[in-house]
């Protein structure tokens, strides 16, 4: 992703998107009660476009502002629709920049129980895909190829991390060496060009099995920690959220695990897993009910981290 291009695209699209949303929902700007917007974390240039637009709209319409944390919104996506978890619930939030286990005691009462100490799960998918020569974002492509592969064919190590935290950087390194060694397993060991050809052939011949095995390991890392969190807290309402929760392997495995553990598992519809505006709106709705509004000053401005 090129940050400069992303913010330019935001500038070009924000007015048409808002117009289209108002048209589709048949709501007039003056009918809305408050303006919720993503304040952080994320790409600063893109966030700035949204923040300035929201603040301008708030001033022009004289409507209150509600700053939203992007990761809280991913969790809250589980409260969209009729099939909603009761509080407290645990949420495994897995996106391109974050991997967290969050205990949600109420709409505005979230506690992080564990998180990644290095790469996020989405990054693990995307970086593995890059090593396989797949384009960005590689997560959905690994998901696609994995559907026809054998998840047990190749074994990647499980990191040893204390408590409820995650680590994915070792997995990336082990995949890198696994692919390099695959390229070397020929009689022309010293010839780099030949070894690259062999490596490419190995990847092409085994793409589905490699993807299925990588996905299997990422999912098992996530679910082992989630299971630990559920055991430790005694909470049986379990949700997933974030872009990686669109992964079919994760959705299937968590459903099966939930059945054996007696959990109530909640999985957002695909369109509410990856980044979307509805999750910002529902988070804003609960903050509105709680009277949690944001001032127009710099404290509610765009921030890369929160
Ligand atoms: O939540 P999200 O849309 O944006 C962030 O807030 O980061 O998550 C994007 C991440 C990317 O890493 C992308 O590869 C991953 O979610 N992703 C998937 C799938 N769909 C999106 N990873 C695995 N399988 C998928 N089906
Ligand atoms: Zn996101």
Report on the architecture of this protein.
This protein has 306 residues and is α/β, with parallel strands linked by helices. The chain has two domains: 97 residues, ATPase, nucleotide binding domain (Nucleotidyltransferase, domain 5, 2-Layer Sandwich), CATH 3.30.420; 146 residues, Nucleotidyltransferase, domain 5 (2-Layer Sandwich), CATH 3.30.420.40. 49% of the residues lie in helices and 13% in strands. The protein has nine helices and seven strands; from the N terminus they run αβαβαβββααααβαβα. Strand 4 and strand 5 form a beta hairpin. Helix 6 runs antiparallel to helix 7. 5'-O-[(R)-(carboxyoxy)(hydroxy)phosphoryl]adenosine binds next to helix 4 and helix 5. The site of zinc ion (ZN) has 6 residues, from helix 3.
The overall number of domains is 2
Strand count: 7
Describe the biggest sheet? Answer: 5 strands, mixed
Question: What is the subunit arrangement here?
Answer: single chain
Which second-level CATH architecture of the largest domain applies? 2-Layer Sandwich
Structural class: alpha/beta
Poorly predicted ranges? none
Radius of gyration: 21 Å
Gist?
The chain is an alpha/beta fold.
Keywords:
5-stranded mixed sheet; globular; Nucleotidyltransferase, domain 5; binds zinc ion; 7 strands; 306 residues; binds 5'-O-[(R)-(carboxyoxy)(hydroxy)phosphoryl]adenosine; alpha/beta; 2 domains
List the helices and strands and how they pair.
Layout: H1 3-25, E1 35-40, H2 44-61, E2 65-69, H3 70-76, E3 89-94, E4 99-106, E5 109-115, H4 121-131, H5 139-146, H6 169-184, H7 192-233, E6 237-241, H8 248-261, E7 264-266, H9 278-289
Parallel strand pairs: 1-2, 3-6, 6-7
Antiparallel strand pairs: 3-4, 4-5
The protein binds 5'-O-[(R)-(carboxyoxy)(hydroxy)phosphoryl]adenosine (KG4) and zinc ion.
5'-O-[(R)-(carboxyoxy)(hydroxy)phosphoryl]adenosine (KG4) binds at residues 95-97, 122, 125-126, 137, 139-140, 143, 242-244, 246-247, 274-275.
């Amino acid at each position: 992703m090129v940050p400069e291009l992303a913010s330019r695209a935001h500038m070009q699209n924000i007015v048409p998107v808002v117009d289209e949303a108002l048209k589709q929902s048949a709501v007039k700007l003056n009918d809305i009660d408050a303006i919720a917007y993503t304040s952080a974390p994320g790409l600063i240039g893109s966030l700035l476009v949204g923040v300035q637009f929201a603040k301008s709209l708030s001033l022009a319409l004289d409507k209150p502002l509600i700053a939203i944390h992007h990761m809280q919104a991913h969790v809250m996506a589980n409260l969209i629709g009729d099939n909603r978890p009761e509080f407290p619930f645990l949420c495994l939030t897995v996106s391109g920049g974050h991997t967290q286990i969050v205990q949600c005691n109420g709409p505005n009462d979230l506690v992080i129980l564990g998180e990644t100490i290095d790469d996020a799960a989405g990054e693990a998918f995307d970086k593995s895909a890059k090593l396989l020569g797949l384009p960005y974002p590689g997560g959905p492509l690994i998901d696609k190829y994995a559907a026809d592969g054998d998840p047990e064919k190749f074994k990647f190590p499980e990191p040893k991390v204390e408590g409820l935290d995650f680590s994915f950087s070792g997995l990336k390194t082990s995949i890198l060496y696994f692919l390099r060694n695959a390229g070397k397993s020929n009689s022309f060991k010293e010839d780099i060009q030949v070894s690259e050809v062999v490596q490419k052939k190995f990847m092409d011949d085994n793409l589905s099995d490699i993807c299925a095995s990588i996905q299997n390991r990422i999912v098992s890392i996530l679910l082992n920690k989630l299971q630990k969190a559920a055991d430790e807290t005694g909470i049986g309402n379990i949700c997933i959220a974030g872009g990686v929760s669109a992964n079919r392997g994760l959705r299937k495995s968590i459903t099966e695990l939930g059945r054996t553990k007696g959990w109530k598992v909640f999985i957002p519809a695909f369109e509410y897993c990856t980044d979307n505006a509805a999750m910002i709106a529902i988070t804003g709705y609960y903050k509105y009910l709680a009277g949690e509004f944001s001032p127009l000053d710099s404290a509610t401005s765009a921030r890369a981290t929160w």
